[in-house]
């Protein structure tokens, strides 16, 4: 790792803090608002993130600590999953556990970084868009997610991942172009 690269644990910590801020900004009466993800509410976006994280660690024989239901307390449910995932990522013996993934042999930390951290940025935007809170994404996150999305190619269009690309003007900003590539209207 070079001095400009960060570990999966560090990236997760940083992006999870941003996702936490987005959750904490949601007004109590906005959890059932429709999200940009077809058929999902704001609460469903958080549920998806939690379920993805819980399912991810199972592929290497681990479990996240149980926590409250997203239906009862989305913030507390997220905090329980986040803290449990962070503890796993901070333990090299666990974060480097290998498995055979969709794109070949990999390890838990790499998948969390390339998939779950991606979700924290994009579903953070979905959550903010659903609830009328600040949808701004950091430029560094937009660039990082754009690189990952481009690397995924057409596999990003698999059922249940992202919708078809939306056309935007050539002079649109990078965040708008990224969201459009992922089937979202900024």
Beta-strand residue fraction: under 5%
CATH architecture of the largest domain: Up-down Bundle
Q: Tell me, what is the CATH class of the largest domain?
A: Mainly Alpha
Give the CATH H-level superfamily of the largest domain: dinb family like domain
Count of discrete alpha- or pi-helical segments spanning 4 or more residues: 7
- Number-wise, the strands total 2
What is the CATH topology assignment of the largest domain?
Four Helix Bundle (Hemerythrin (Met), subunit A)
Structural class: mainly alpha
Helix content: 40-55%
Protein name: TIGR03086 family protein
Organism: Rhodococcus erythropolis (Arthrobacter picolinophilus)
GO molecular function: metal ion binding
Can you characterise this structure?
There is one protein chain. It is globular and about 45 Å long. The protein folds into two domains: 8-136, dinb family like domain (Four Helix Bundle (Hemerythrin (Met), subunit A), Up-down Bundle); 137-186, no CATH class. A hairpin with a 2-residue loop joins strand 1 (98-101) and strand 2 (104-107). Helix 1 (8-24) packs antiparallel against helix 3 (74-89), helix 2 (42-58) packs parallel to helix 3 and helix 6 packs parallel to helix 7. A two-stranded antiparallel ribbon has the order 1-2. With 186 residues, the protein is mainly alpha-helical. The chain has seven helices and two strands. The protein has helices at residues 8-24, 42-58, 74-89, 92-95, 108-131, 139-152, 174-181, and strands spanning 98-101, 104-107.
